[in-house]
Amino acid sequence: MSEAKAETATTKTAPRAKIRAPRINDESRPFWEATTRGELLVKHCTACGENHYFPRTFCPFCFSDATEWLKCSGRGTIYTYSVTRRGEPYAIAYVTLEEGPTMLTNLIDCDFDKLAIGQAVKVKFVDTGEGSALPFFVPG
Question: Which residues lie closer than 8 Å to 35 by C-beta, 6 or more apart?
Answer without folding.
Answer: 6, 125, 132, 133, 134, 135
